Amino acid sequence: MLTMTDINTIRNLRNNHDKSINHIKKELSINWRTAKKYSDTDFVPTPKKHKKSGMMYLEKWGSIVSLWLFEDSKLPKKKRRNAKFITIELKKEGFAGSYRTVCNFIQDWKSTHYTESNEDQGFERLEHPPAEAQLDFGTMEVCHEGAFKDVKALVMSYPNSNVGFAVALPAENQECLLEGMKELFRQANGVPKKIRIDNMSTAVLQTKTRNTPAVLTDGFLQFASHYGFETQVCNPRSGNEKGSVENKVGYVRYNFFSSTPIILDFESFNQTLANQLVADRERLHYEKHRTIAELWLEEKASLLPLPGVDYPVFKEIEVKANKYNEIKMDNVWIHVPQSRNHSLIYALLRFDSYQLISIDGEIIHEGLRPYMNKKRLIEWAIILQDWRRKPRAMVYSRYWKYLPERIKLFLNHPDWSEQDHRVNHLLGLLATHDMLGIDANFYELIGDSSESNTYDVDWNNYDAFLLSSPNEEAING
Known about the structure:
Blueprint: H1 4-15, H2 21-28, H3 32-40, H4 55-58, H5 61-72, H6 83-92, H7 99-111, E1 132-144, E2 147-158, E3 163-169, H8 174-188, E4 194-197, E5 204-206, E6 215-216, H9 218-227, E7 230-233, H10 243-256, H11 266-280, H12 292-300, E8 315-319, E9 326-329, E10 332-335, E11 345-349, E12 353-358, E13 363-368, E14 376-377, H13 380-389, H14 405-411, H15 416-430, H16 435-440, H17 442-445, H18 459-466, H19 470-476
Parallel strand pairs: 1-4, 4-7
Antiparallel strand pairs: 1-2, 2-3, 2-14, 5-6, 8-11, 9-10, 11-12, 12-13
Helix pairs in contact: 1-3, 1-9, 2-3, 6-7, 13-15
């Protein structure tokens, strides 16, 4: 079987150098059918079907032994059944296998069910021809569901026209990188011929040195082969070699994330961010004295076309459950009921979600990747105490826009003494509730305006707010 490097070479000769199948066959000394197969066929990854063979996996015996081993794991070692005893008990039930078959299954089961605590150069001339891009990550802060989160903005810059594209992602792993690149290609409606990256671990297996080239991961190579772009890896500690995207990351941060925008979900936020970047192209290029939009229109004609077959981004790994029916994912333990009853479990990881699949192909658990829920609570008690000292400036605070709309209307009262009273009342509630909880139970905790004039609020203003576009206001915020 050919390596991804060989496949990439075949596709490069076929698509970029217009070589015939016979020429590729002779030059690489491979079979004609092999050259034809890898030249003209789209190869996209598909989840493998991990099905063990043998009576322990295809019949009931494996499930029986798995249950016994799980039960014994809770007992002192001297009370646990050994392989010989298990074999004898199985044979009483009609088991036709051997002692060695049982031993192999037990060894396989234990290898996936122990907890972790038991496991022991030169410089390049920098030129910027059309359709060559630079890529990098930047860390940005957003507000989601009333709390602050760090997101990773994947930024792609085209130095020739100085146009930039950006997409917010929940993490900086390979699944997020490839999913983000797919979205950036979609926004550009084409693929750059070359992409310059640093030695990011999500794409680079072995760092580039003065004497040896960088070695890319198979996953990234397969992705690059599918889209047809060439990858250039910078020298270590040479940020100047991708200075365009370094500057673009800062530009995106200071122009679109400076006041911590509000995000409802990644899809709608990224669409709003893309629209803002399109509008930003109307400014003049810093050197060529033409608008970036005009320059991009010319450069865009040099892009490679998007492939006709979509590239599915996922990673498949084998996971194991500890004695508490917990599986570790993204450095977080997730409780999965009855997970120890499965001898083997495979995790199908996408950039924002996961599925846990048994060897029989059954989905036993699924959900959002743990890093999707990481957040930092806003210290509303401290902020409200500061607002008490300068109540008239409250609505101009950078934190004001993160309040739920009911709370905004409740606090924004023309009478200063009443406003101070309401701030104190809210501070008292924060001792036992969070801000979202107060908003969700507003009438029970603060009172209905029909029963008291103390907390009168014009809810017509609140209803009007719901008709506006939160993400548009947030990203401009």
